[in-house]
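Thread: fe (iii) ion complex, take 2
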Amino acid sequence: MSADGFNTSPPPGARADWTIDQDWAAYSAAEHEVWMTLYRRQAELLPGRACDEFLHGLDALDLHRGGIPEFARINEELTRLTGWSVVAVPGLVPDDIFFDHLANRRFPAGRFIRKPHELDYLQEPDVFHDVFGHVPMLTDPIFAEYMQAYGEGGLKALGRGQLHNLARLYWYTVEFGLLETKQGLRIYGAGIVSSLSESIFALDDPSPNRIGFDLERVMRTPYRIDDFQQVYFVIPSLRALRETTLADFSTIYERLATAPDIAIDAMEPCDRIYTCGTQAYARAGGRMASR
Ligand code: PHE
Ligand code: FE
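Output below.
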């Protein structure tokens, strides 16, 4: 995800578009070991939890091979499948830079990996979150299109001063989205699949609300960046998500400019409810989250 910072010039050593070389040879054995530990935990947990598109993407990119993947190798297959590629960045990048990359089917990924004592909690997205979490879905043609359109839409929202509304769409789909399937709810959000504890919480815990996706409803709902989500939105299919977001958002933005936000734990009369959460976790103070 992008930063809201005002710093618009790239840090020393980065290119004008904020990209850097991954410098794969520089990773230490201990760093590769961190990836493998995280990888093993998630690979064991996610069948039956992550959606098929994600699991297929994981296979297609052969992220099973040991250690932190080399972006150049991932990109051979990813580009062939959907025209996307992964580019390395030093950390969070400014919004306009981020959207421009997405609009051109480039996914900016952090190069660094968390430390062994940070397996369960991390403030800034690292290479495991960015690559394991986000890149498998980019092998799916429908999702690939959605992400590119989001990048274009982001530039538009920035220009209108309504990025806070569009950012919620990203958060509740790309990062924390759930998908309904015949076998039950499945995860497609990167923030969930890269987290051991949230991969369980998001599907199994009675605390959060789980509500059918509605575009304007989502864009009126704030989110939390510091703990498990209090609400998850469920899409009926990736195709449906793409269809609802294809339309021009101009009239939506006009309505949103005066529409009040919806409280993070509220239920609205027209919500399609999958789970009416107890909110017990949030009320008890939370803070078990990791991603
Ligand atoms: N259709 C949106 C608009 O007109 C752009 C968009 C597409 C935003 C997909 C998000 C996701 O602004
Ligand atoms: Fe992310």
